[in-house]
């Protein structure tokens, strides 16, 4: 009986250690990590909303491919960051929440907490466009949007603590910098 009790206690202790070890890496976070996830989720949501518009507003293969790539990359990143916030016991931005309904548009103004976000008017203008006008507007807006995401990712890499969040920030910087170059080529700039 003593051996069985000892084995049960040892097994319980090992289980507790392994489960806490598994979560300790992702549980190690700071305010910058939380801000990164809470800001990047609505930022990515807007990018995927913009990208989804391309399906019905352009026939340009390069724009359609870019929009599909943006949706394919950023949708799963939203899910990942949502998971972190839940695990950390922090608020997840509600769908459609751009930080309390404030206009965070930033076409060059670095004072915004979410640089590169489009205003409601800009989104409505994009939604109302099609063809060549859509392509031009989509690419121009998405360059600004991506530049904002790169800026936010740089801040996470310098100020964040969570290894997974910093790694995602590195991926965002790399991928979106490459997409910016592609979009500038498509714009001819």
Written description of the protein model:
By secondary structure, the chain is an all-alpha fold. The chain has one domain: Ferritin, core subunit, four-helix bundle (Ferritin). It contains six helices and no strands. It has helices at residues 2-27, 31-57, 61-88, 120-128, 131-159, 163-187. The longest helix has 29 residues, at 131-159. The N and C termini lie far apart (78 Å). The model is unreliable at 3-25 and 99-112 (pLDDT under 50). InterPro entries: DUF305_CopM-like, Ferritin-like. This is DUF305 domain-containing protein. It holds the Pfam family DUF305. Residues 33-187 form the DUF305 domain.
How would you summarize this macromolecular structure in one to three sentences?
It comes from Aeromicrobium fastidiosum. The protein has helices at residues 2-27, 31-57, 61-88, 120-128, 131-159, 163-187. The chain is mainly alpha-helical.
Describe the secondary-structure layout.
Layout: H1 2-27, H2 31-57, H3 61-88, H4 120-128, H5 131-159, H6 163-187
So, CATH architecture?
Answer: Up-down Bundle
The assigned structural class equals mainly alpha
Strand-residue fraction? under 5%
Radius of gyration: 21 Å
The largest sheet, given as strand count, sense and whether it forms a barrel, is:
none
Helix content: over 70%
| CATH T-level fold name | Ferritin
User: Order of SSEs, N→C?
Assistant: HHHHHH
The helix count comes to: 6
The figure for the number of domains is 1
Kindly state the number of beta strands: 0
What's the mean pLDDT score?
Answer: 84
* Amino-to-carboxy terminus distance: 78 Å
- CATH homologous superfamily designation: Ferritin, core subunit, four-helix bundle
Uncertain segments are 3-25, 99-112
Overall shape: elongated
CATH top level label: Mainly Alpha
């Amino acid at each position: 009986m003593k051996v069985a009790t000892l084995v049960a206690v040892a097994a319980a202790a090992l289980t507790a250690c392994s489960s806490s070890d598994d979560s300790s890496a992702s549980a190690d976070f700071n305010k910058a990590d939380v801000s990164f996830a809470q800001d990047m989720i609505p930022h990515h949501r807007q990018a995927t909303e913009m990208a989804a518009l391309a399906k019905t507003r352009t026939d340009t293969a390069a724009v359609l491919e870019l929009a599909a790539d943006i949706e394919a990359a950023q949708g799963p990143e939203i899910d990942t960051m949502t998971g972190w916030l839940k695990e950390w016991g922090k608020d997840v931005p509600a769908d459609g929440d751009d930080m309390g309904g404030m206009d965070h548009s930033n076409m060059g103004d670095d004072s915004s907490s979410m640089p590169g976000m489009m205003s409601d008017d800009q989104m409505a203008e994009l939604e109302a466009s099609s063809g060549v006008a859509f392509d031009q507007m989509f690419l121009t807006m998405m360059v600004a949007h991506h530049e904002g995401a790169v800026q936010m990712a740089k801040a996470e890499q310098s100020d964040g603590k969570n290894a997974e969040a910093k790694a995602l920030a590195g991926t965002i910087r790399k991928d979106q910098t490459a997409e910016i170059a592609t979009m500038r080529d498509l714009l001819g700039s």
